[in-house]
Structure formats: structure tokens, C-alpha cells
Please model this.
Amino acid sequence: MDISIVGSGYVGLVTAVGLASIGHRVVCIDVDGSRVDLINRAEAPFYENGLAEALRTHVRDRGALRASLDYSEIADSDITFICVNTCSNSGQNADFRQKHIKEATKKIGQSLASKRDYHTVVTKSSVVPGTTEKIIIPLLERYSGKQVGTDFGVAVNPEFLQEGRALQSFLNMDRIIIGEYDARSGSMTQGVYNGSRAPVLRTKMRTAEMIKFASNAFLAAKISFINEIGNLCKKIGVDVYEVADGMGLDPRIGRAFLNAGIGFGGSCLPKDLEALLRKYRETGEKAPLLSAVYNTNKSQPLRMVEVARARLGDLKGKRIGVLGLAFKPHTDDIRNAPAVEVIRQLLAQEARVVVYDPKAMPRVRELFHEQVEYEDSVAGAIAGCDCILIVTEWSEFKDENLFAGKVVIDGRRALDPDKASLVCQSYDGVCW
Ligand code: UDX
Model:
């Protein structure tokens, strides 16, 4: 098929590469000229495991993927995936949050105005339930002058990609969820994944939108749950990781997403949970459980700073090394990263902060400028520090001997507590 992808951020570009790798011809449409140039030079605009190599294969060697600024190219494709950013900052109003999706949809509608054949438009970005019906379809009809169901089809096909292993996630999907306006739209969308062995569930559009939000809220709940259990375990001398291993043996529970620590970050879990809570408020429904999931996660990174205070006393003037800034390993993404909150707290307490991350340094520099010191190695960040905080579990930090004689606080169980307790001056876990 000829596929157009609108928005070549994280979701859009990974989807584009994935679709090219299963045999489609793909064009990424974006408003950012420098991003379009980078993709056409087969260079990755951000770090994701395997993305640079995949771009070389599909852009340069096979010519199956390219990027363009020209929305009118959408008319040359069979199906369009909307993959634009859905910002959901709590301080922003609904208009602002929907700005990107509305602008993209309007331009897709305009480009479909000149198209004679049937076309399908698919929402892949995470949007609150009802968005495709209430916002996307009316805009497509208005700007194309055409009618949904007759001239074009619409579907919702949420992404479940995990950063750091997004390309593998795409190629080994565990499910394909398709919310369809009608059967024709759903079948067109399903056709894109021909050959995949993943189970397919076809639903109404708002159900598919809700499946994405409910899935992320559930994962978030698992993490906040185990963190709360861990906070008590620490107080009563129980190892929460052994508790999680024991719980995980029950197939009804499962071991995944029960790693206790400083909580979840990233572009999806916090943002989608916020958007869902907002939807509860709008409808007058209460969500005490999900509100608690959110609040527990907000306070979890602060515990790390509390442990540091318990060890060192007043943090003013203390040199604190922060290892790991990305919200999880194998990505350079610092959106809602617990490290950012930890650094803010340390600065508020007038500590001297030294940071190191193998991939995310440029992004952290854009945020903190000269407020913190930047080191280009683990050893450099550790040297001369009063205390080291391990915030992201990159594998290069997983060596207890690096921290011999140091005061270490581990937010991610990067180190083996028994070994670390032997070699470090002191070793504390955030909830173990
Ligand atoms: C998530 C969903 O997993 C994915 O399906 C969706 O499409 C996008 O959002 P992602 O944001 O890439 O993916 O990261 P994920 O692996 O889910 O981790 C999110 C955060 O939770 C990270 O900060 C991670 O460190 C944290 N986490 C994860 C824990 O604290 N404990 C765990 O057990 C698992």
C-alpha cells in the first residue's frame, strides 16, 4: 500500500519505519523542514534503539520511506495515519491541547478535496474517547467537502509502542486494536497489517480510544501500587522485589510493571492519566483510585531527595551526582522524567548538582542550562560527590564496584542491594 503518516515524531517515525519494513511505501508529512531533511538523509532526529540503522535501510537502501513538507502528497496515498503530538499539559486549555490534531486534520481534509478515490484516515495518536467522532470527522468533512462513509473512511488504531524497544514492539505486536467508523474503514486499516499474527479486535471508535487510555492507566496503577507496597516494605524490612517476584508467579497478576522505584515518567503514562482524569472531571464522575495512582507517582521521586537528606542532613552546598536522566534506559527522552523532578528539588535545596546520562545530555542541557554541571562519563559524575543518586537503570551503572566507598541512593534497583551494601559507604533503595 501507499501510506502517508502525518507527524514524524516518536510515534509517527517508528510507525513509518515499521510499515516500510513490512513492505509498504511510506511518506512522512511534517511541518518541520529540518526534520524532513534529516529523515530524507536517513538520519534519526532522536535516539531510539535501532532507528538509525532502520532509516538507512528503508530510506537510503530500499527507497521505501521518505519525508515531505507537502500535505498534498496525502492524496497520492491509500491511507493516512495521524501521528501528531497530543499535548496535554494540565495548565493548557482544551483548544491548545487539540491544536496539533486539529491543524493536521484540517490539512488532511484539504488535500483529500482533490482526491477522486476512496481514502481512509486513521487516528494513531492517543486521543481522549470521542475525539475522532466529535473533532476529526467533522473537520475532515468540512475541509474536504466530502462525506465520511461514502467518500472516505475513518478508523482509530492506537499505538502501544514502548520507547527503547519501539521497533521490536512494532514488529511483534501483541494486539491490533481497530476502532472503525464502518466495516470498510476497519478492513482497510486491518489490511495494512496483513501477515501479522497479532490478534485483531475491531470495535467502535471511542472504544478503541478508551482501550488505549485504560491500558496506560492500568500500567500506571501497577507501578503506583508496587511503589506504595514498597514504601511500607522499606519501613518494615521486607524486600519489595521479592514480594513482586512472589506476586508475579500468579498468572492473574503477572510480574511485569511491578518494579518498584521512583515512579513512571515518559510521554504517555503521565499524560494519558492526566487526560483521563480530566475526562472524569468533565463528566462529573469520580476517580479516587486513578487520582491516587497519579498522586503517588508525583510524590515518589521526592522520596529519593528525602533519603538523601536523611543521610547527609542539609543538602545546601553538597555535591550530588545524578546518574541517568532519560525517563527510562535506551531512549534520550526526558519528558516527565523523574530525574527532572529530582534535579529541581535538589536545586531548590541549593545542592550542587552534577549530571550524567549516556544519551539524554543534550536535552537536559536545554532544560537546566548552567544550573547544573555536566559530566561525560559515569566516573566523572561520581568523582568528588557527597552522594550519588541512580535515577535511570542504564546498564553501564550496574556495577557495584563503581560506587566503592560512596553514599548511594538507588531509585531503580540498578544495583544488587547485598553487593552494594558491602562496597558502598552506604546504600539505600528508594523503597527497599
Ligand atoms: C508506555 C506504554 O508501555 C506503551 O504501551 C504506550 O504505548 C506508551 O506508554 P513508554 O512510555 O515507552 O510506554 O514506557 P514504559 O516502558 O511503559 O515505562 C513507563 C515508565 O514507567 C518509565 O519511567 C519506567 O521506568 C516506569 N516503570 C515501568 C516502572 O517504574 N516500573 C515498572 O515496573 C515498569
About this structure: The mean pLDDT is 95.
